[in-house]
Amino acid sequence: MVFLVTKKYAKFATKLEEAMKKLWGILTFMVISIGMIKAQDEIDSLKLERVILDSIFLAEFEEPEKYKKPKVLHAEPLYIDLIRDLGARKGEKEWNVGFGMFDKRGVDKYEALVEYEWAPIDRLGLEIEVPVTLFNVRGNPTDIDRPSNRIESLKLASQWSFLVSEKAKTTLALGYIHEFEFVDLNKIGRGDIFKGNIYNPFFIAAKRWGMNYHTLVYTGPRIEKEFNSRREISYEIHSNFHYMIAGTRNFIGIEVNKEIINGKLETVLRPQMRVGLAENLMVGIVTGIPINRERESLSSFVRIIYEPGFKTFH
Prior knowledge:
alpha+beta
């Protein structure tokens, strides 16, 4: 009799254990499902928040006031920068200060620049820039000539955005840069102050894909003509890809600078990022990685961007 009771109890315990396992499995599934739903809701909420924030920012940046023309937000490359924003509006202005260091295989090259950009009328940007180059030879090599320090040029530039398409999120522009080249610093005062001219017409095509992805192509010939010398012609093809952080003008991306010189293509990759320190103050950081420039190694460049009067979310 005791044996039968024990046997029945064992069967009941087994069934109870199986039922508890099934119940535990159901509860586990429910907890995981609820967690997944909650996590998905949080992800969807974050996505929605980013979309709303981006929409507000783009509307604030692009949609014109009654007397202003529409404009499309594009990420501007940091090394070969543009002459004012694409689709510039009258009254916009910007100061840039840049510093760069380049390893030229035995020679350190330092670059500095100061430039001022402004838009006198809608769609037209103008720029004045003065770049300076300084050199330092490492050690005491006998086979390397130390290049002369110089104020490179007085650079004057213009850029006209002739097409701004809000629907296609695309802007096309034409521009021209003219540089009056200075002689080396150690020759100033001994004769002519200028040694030649550089002519650089260019074309720009920029498109934003969705809200955050930006592409841009900048291309054109560069003609350098020193007095009493033959002209030298090269062709530039710069392509850019950037991702702009939602609701800001901060971005990360890459600038690919390509130049055809004497039939040879020279390429430098420039990973970069731009960070806003305030509404009207940003800093851009660039690293240069040469692909096939035999006499150049890694480089770095920093650009400080100040836009007086710029304000968004006002």
